[in-house]
TrEMBL record:
Domain of life of the source: Bacteria
UniProt-listed PROSITE patterns: COF_1
Coiled coil among keywords: yes
Source organism of the structure: Neobacillus kokaensis
InterPro entries: Cof (IPR000150), HAD-like_sf (IPR036412), HAD-SF_hydro_IIB (IPR006379), HAD_sf (IPR023214)
Protein name: Haloacid dehalogenase
Length: 284
């Protein structure tokens, strides 16, 4: 590989995270090795920042994190940038989700995700067994865990700063109808919708995505897109992959992701694809 990046951005789900929602120790050690050699390594994920610690091995460190699909960025404990969903949008979306009985999680900054108690019955019903065949095991297990441990069921919305909405449906027809509803709402209120699987959708502030987050993180470190590589697998990675000089798709990525990238890993996320790719291309 002739191109030697100064910065590498790594997606989580389907990239450094396997389908058991874990980052392996050797992936962590490869990141450590590259950072010791002067590479800047970053995470760029759709997950909330607060979720990351439980998914990675002890001692896992990177130079920065772009979380919630570009809504917030951290360098260590420093907040590099942060945006929040307006309360009127939050309230409107919850009303519409309730009308269509769409599973939702609202992510406040620095607090557990929220779903309103009046919606609990239909939200829990979406996660009833058996798992639909087309739902990924990592997404399904994350929803199971959210229902049992992560969601705080509230009587009303609490807080004023929110990083994103996450929506899920057990059928493609249901989530596709919801996406159409969101697209209609975008004609009235400007916001960004992101998709990372056939069964979900996420909502962020207008004109925000992983690419905008990557740009702000690069600026913080005095780097440019021309010095940057990114690895991802899903539709929500497309803006980031199109932005950087060298884009890599996971072997398990969708065809539309592979079509716009410069390279594809030899192995999937379940076979430590990122570890082997970084080892082959950059180990001294």
């Amino acid at each position: 590989m002739k191109f030697q990046p100064k910065a590498i951005f790594l997606d989580m789900d389907g990239t450094i995270l396997n389908h058991q929602n874990k980052v392996t120790l050797r992936t962590k050690e490869m990141i450590d090795e590259l950072r010791e050699r002067g590479f800047r390594i970053f995470i760029a994920t759709g997950r909330a920042f607060e979720e990351i610690a439980e998914l990675v091995p002890p001692g896992f460190q990177v130079d920065g994190v772009v979380a919630s699909n570009g809504m917030v960025g951290y360098a260590g404990k420093d907040v590099v940038f942060k945006q929040t969903l307006p309360l009127n949008l939050v309230e409107t979306i919850i009303e519409k989700a309730r009308a269509q009985k769409v599973y939702y999680e609202l992510f406040p900054y620095g607090a557990p995700r929220i779903t309103l108690k009046q919606d609990q019955a239909y939200v829990e019903a979406e996660i009833r067994d058996p798992k639909p065949e087309t739902v990924g095991i990592n997404e399904w297990s994350s929803r199971k865990e959210a229902i049992s441990e992560r969601i705080e069921w509230k009587n009303h919305i609490e807080g004023t700063a929110f990083s994103k909405f996450y929506f899920f449906a057990r059928t493609k027809e249901h989530i596709n109808n919801w996406k159409k509803e969101l697209e209609e709402l975008q004609k009235e209120i400007d916001f960004t919708m992101s998709i990372s699987s056939e069964h979900n959708a996420e909502v962020m502030v207008a004109n925000v995505n992983k690419a905008t987050g990557v740009q702000q993180m690069l600026k913080r470190f005095g780097l440019s897109e021309d010095e940057t590589m990114a690895i991802g697998d899903s539709d929500n990675d497309l803006p980031m992959l199109k932005l950087v000089r060298y884009a890599v798709a996971m072997k398990n990525a969708s065809d539309r992701v592979k079509e716009i990238t410069d390279d594809v890993t030899e192995f999937t996320c379940d076979d430590d694809g990122v570890y082997y790719y970084l080892k082959e291309k950059f180990r001294a």
